Amino acid sequence: MRHAIGLIAAVALGVLPRALPATAPQGNAAGEYSKHFSALSQLSIAVADTMPAEKYGFRPHPESMSFGELMSHVASTNYQFCAGLKDTNTPALPSPSDKEAIVRFLSDSFQYCSTVINSLTEEQLNAVHNSPDGRLPGREVLLAMYIHVAHHRGQAEIYLRDNGIKPPAYRI
User: Fold this and answer.
1) CA–CA separation, 96 vs 76, rounded Å?
2) Given CA atoms 78, 81, 86, 92 in this order, what sign does their dihedral have?
């Protein structure tokens, strides 16, 4: 099951054909997840950086989140997923409104999650935790978080294209 979820995560992240260096210590139970987390976070932050500050209020449809709201949503939800993995409450979160603060919020959320993921034990990966998607085993919380980030990053890339901006290329 663990390898199946890892394979699904790799497919969802589009990283299956490429090998990424592990960021977790050798033998870390969460190594299969943390080795892809660096690429996930770097590309997401690059997408946020690519949108000009004056376009952070852009929304492709009146009912859509603005680009800034979308990036803040990813950051907030990262904190929720990772606090759930720690079985703690989500820390107090800022409400940034400008590009610089939103990118910092997003970056900080990935750093918070990186610390959590790199310290997960096999027991925590098997245990059931609260998450924005309900109570799930740790591995499924991680998968749900990765899918959530990839989904909204894809939306953000469309926001960029709607503004005539080429999204950053996937990189390892």
Assistant:
1) 11
2) positive
DSSP secondary structure letters along 43-104? HHHHHHHHS-GGGTT--SSTTSPPHHHHHHHHHHHHHHHHHHHTTSPPPP-----SHHHHHH
- What is the distance between the alpha carbons of residues 150 and 36, in angstroms, rounded to a whole number? 12
Q: Which of 2, 34, 36 is nearest to 16 (CA)?
A: 36
| Ramachandran bin of 87, using left for φ above 0, alpha for ψ from -120 to 50, beta for the remaining angles | left
Q: Domains for the chain: give ranges and CATH numbers.
A: 2-21+30-162 (1.20.120.450)
Contacting residues for 100 by C-beta, under 8 A, at least 6 apart: 53
Question: Is the distance from CB of 17 to CB of 151 less than 8 angstroms?
Answer: no
Calpha distance 141→5 (Å, rounded): 11
Supply the pTM of this predicted model.
0.83
- Residue bearing tokens 């996930």: 40
What tens digit of pLDDT does each residue of 76-100 get? 999 999 999 999 999 999 999 999 9
